[in-house]
Design a protein that fits this description.
The protein is of the alpha+beta class and 135 residues long. It has helices spanning 24-31, 62-77, 95-109; strands at 3-15, 38-50, 80-81, 114-121, 127-130. A five-stranded mixed sheet has the order 3-1-2-4-5. The relative contact order is 0.21.
């Protein structure tokens, strides 16, 4: 029996979408308003799949997942400028890139279960979902 559990986290951060190899005009054309520094109240849903432990009924204790997310993600990005944080060094801080980076961090720290998806919401209308190499 495979079950899925999800933990939601929130953080606020600023970013600017631009490619340093593009001209100013090309950045304006591609990234439009997002080419200026602006911020989001991000929501991130992390889903882990697995077989519940017969002794606890847990796929993964959500307190453990919460601690992983707080220590390895939120503490590094909350109220920061994402273009300047080490986790995203060298990347354009799109929701897509953020989802992949978060996946790689979370996956290393999961004691049990298998990471299924990471969804990064910039708003109620815009989000990216990464399913790892399973997709």
């Amino acid at each position: 029996m495979i079950l899925y559990i999800t933990r939601r986290i929130h953080f606020s951060a600023a970013h600017r979408l631009f490619n340093p190899t593009f001209t100013f005009e090309k950045n304006e054309e591609i990234f439009d308003k997002c080419n200026t520094v602006h911020g989001h109240n991000y929501t991130v849903d992390v889903t882990v799949k697995g077989t519940p432990d017969p002794e606890t009924g847990y796929v993964l204790d959500l307190k453990i997942l919460k601690r992983i997310l707080e220590e390895h993600i939120v503490d590094h990005v909350d109220h920061k400028h994402l273009n300047e944080v080490a986790l995203l060094d060298g990347l354009i801080p799109t929701a897509e890139n953020i989802a992949v980076v978060f996946w790689n961090i979370i996956e290393k720290h999961l004691p049990v279960g298998e990471l299924y998806s990471v969804k990064v919401f910039e708003s109620d209308n815009n989000w990216a979902e990464y399913l790892g190499e399973q997709a």
